TrEMBL record:
Cofactor(s) needed by this chain: Zn(2+)
Pfam family, one: AstE_AspA_cat
Domain of life: Bacteria
Family affiliation: Belongs to the peptidase M14 family.
Active site residues according to the UniProt entry: E273 (proton donor/acceptor)
Name this polypeptide is given: M14 family metallocarboxypeptidase
UniProt keywords, alphabetically: Hydrolase, Metal-binding, Zinc
Taxonomy of the source species: Bacteria, Pseudomonadati, Pseudomonadota, Betaproteobacteria, Burkholderiales
Organism: Pelomonas margarita
Occurrences of domain Peptidase M14 (ranges): 29-305
Length: 306
């Protein structure tokens, strides 16, 4: 079947500034970062230290970037990092991180330092988008001097923790809009042909192919399986075109591709992928799956011998 071309750009030609501007003009605000995230963080100030680690200004609008730290930070304790909302449209990543902080964030007090950034990409969160306003994917740009402001700010925040972090878990979703909008837009932006794929029905994890941690990944999968279903492979034995390391876990070049979970070079790291469009789950189950993944990852990381 021949698919219609993406409505912006000329097939086979990468986008220039005019096409990026045309794409940005189609994007509309659908929700409020201030109401959904900043307001939700206010009650947490009673138990955590919350600070602004940067700000993004787009079209005259300022988005403060906030980090949540456990109170009584000690350099002799292991450090745990949680990130969400790298892709703004992945709702349970943001609200799963907030739910974890609210319900379980102080459980490791005195045992570990906790640093959480619930919403890395606030402009994209408001517009339910994968990219930032410059049509850049933050999750391919986590490196120093990144062209994506969201990525550069987070890299700078976490730089002092590089090589000193016990755990980094990055909370994501895979949605039907990946195939319906975001992957077609990516192909058009890069002047490439769009090749359709299937959307996995269920939760899965992304491990770093260059630093595999199979026992850790499986401990997280086992915990999440008690909350929601785990994605099976497609007819080719793959999930989103990647080989399975084990049931519910794929291997991907996380570090080489500049993905968020690699920023800290943590001893244990993973990227969660929730599927909110499944008829077999609910929005609350998606949040609960993210929380279960975080708690299981923390339990494993803190129980591992030094």
């Amino acid at each position: 079947m021949t698919l219609p071309p993406y409505p912006i750009g000329t097939p086979g030609q990468p986008w220039g500034p005019a096409e990026v501007a045309a794409w940005r003009a189609r994007v509309v605000r659908q929700r409020s970062y201030a109401d959904d995230v900043l307001a939700a963080l206010e009650p947490l100030r009673q138990a955590f230290d919350i600070s602004e680690y940067g700000a993004l200004v787009y079209d005259g609008e300022r988005f403060p970037l906030l980090a949540v730290r456990s109170r009584g930070w000690r350099d002799d304790l292991p450090t745990l990092v949680i990130t969400g909302g790298v892709h703004g449209y992945e709702t349970s990543g943001v609200h799963g991180a907030l739910q974890f902080l609210s319900d379980h964030g102080t459980e490791t007090a005195g045992q570990a330092n906790l640093l959480a950034v619930p919403c890395v990409s606030p402009w994209a969160y408001e517009r339910v988008q994968r990219w930032n306003p410059d049509a850049l994917d933050p999750n391919r740009n986590f490196r120093p001097h990144s062209p994506a402001g969201e990525s550069a700010a987070l890299v700078a925040l976490l730089a002092p923790l590089h090589g000193r972090t016990r755990l980094h878990i990055d909370l994501h979703e895979t949605t039907d809009s990946d195939e319906g909008e975001f992957r077609p837009a990516l192909a058009a932006r890069d002047g490439e042909a769009f090749v359709p794929d299937t959307v996995p029905d269920g939760f899965y994890l992304v491990d770093d192919a260059d630093r595999p941690q199979p026992a850790f990944q499986q401990a997280v999968i086992e915990a999440v399986a008690r909350v929601t279903h785990i994605a099976p492979p497609d007819a080719h034995g793959l999930i989103i075109g990647c080989p399975l390391q084990s049931p519910g876990v794929i291997s991907y070049a996380v570090t080489r591709k500049g993905l968020c979970a690699a920023i800290t070079a943590a001893r244990f790291s993973t990227t969660t992928e929730v599927y909110p469009d499944s008829p077999r789950t609910t929005p609350q189950q998606c949040l609960d799956a993210q929380v279960a993944a975080v708690r299981a990852a923390i339990a494993y990381a803190l129980s591992a011998p030094d």
